[in-house]
Design goal:
With 196 residues, the protein is an all-alpha fold. It is built from eleven helices and no strands. The protein is flat. The two termini are 30 Å apart.
């Protein structure tokens, strides 16, 4: 997008289209992180902002066949309070998240960070303390926010921020954690100048 090339606009448009049509809820989940990424990491200029807005509109326009019924025919759906409150029984226990054995905790569940992810987040945090880096800080923050929204401690936000209810399951934030941990690992290797 920053380069004077139309390909950036095309790639952004088709990426938005692909994300919306493959899983609209994940698009909704990642959109605030995408906006933060543009502001903090990319540091967009006025010219880049125009291209990004055009890319978003084109991508959403391409996916209109899926988005229009969701927006304009929502009143035909019978989404009762049960649907909007389903999140309350899907929070991940902290011991389950960290895979710490404890009575009554199922550590065989797929809803866990995993040892590698925990090590990478902790390593990234220590690298950030030694060598301040905006990119690393951003992805650590995204990973920690993802962890927070999977926990019962975020219940107040789930109850009062309406768009979170459309995400339905708190464990969907594992997708944010997984993407963030991938970037943290790359940035950690780059900061440590490891030969891989």
């Amino acid at each position: 997008i920053k380069k004077k090339s139309a390909w950036g606009l095309v790639v952004l448009s088709f990426s938005i289209f692909g994300l919306v049509t493959s899983h609209t809820v994940i698009f909704l989940l990642f959109f605030p992180f995408f906006l933060l990424y543009l502001q903090i990491i990319i540091r967009i200029t006025a010219d880049s902002l125009k291209k990004i807005v055009w890319g978003l509109f084109l991508g959403i326009g391409l996916a209109a066949f899926q988005l229009m019924p969701i927006i304009f025919e929502r009143h035909y759906l019978k989404l009762d309070q049960t649907f909007f409150n389903i999140y309350s029984s899907h929070f991940v226990n902290f011991f389950q998240l960290m895979r710490i054995p404890r009575a009554g905790i199922n550590i065989g569940t797929p809803f866990q960070l995993g040892i590698t992810s925990i090590i990478l987040i902790v390593t990234g945090f220590f690298i950030f303390l030694r060598r301040k880096n905006t990119n690393l800080a951003f992805f650590l923050l995204c990973a920690l926010l993802g962890i927070f929204f999977t926990q019962m401690q975020s219940l107040w936000l789930w109850q009062h921020v309406f768009f979170l209810k459309y995400i339905v399951f708190p464990w969907r934030f594992f997708s944010v954690i997984a993407l963030s941990v991938g970037f943290i690992s790359v940035l950690a290797i780059d900061r440590l100048k490891l030969k891989v």
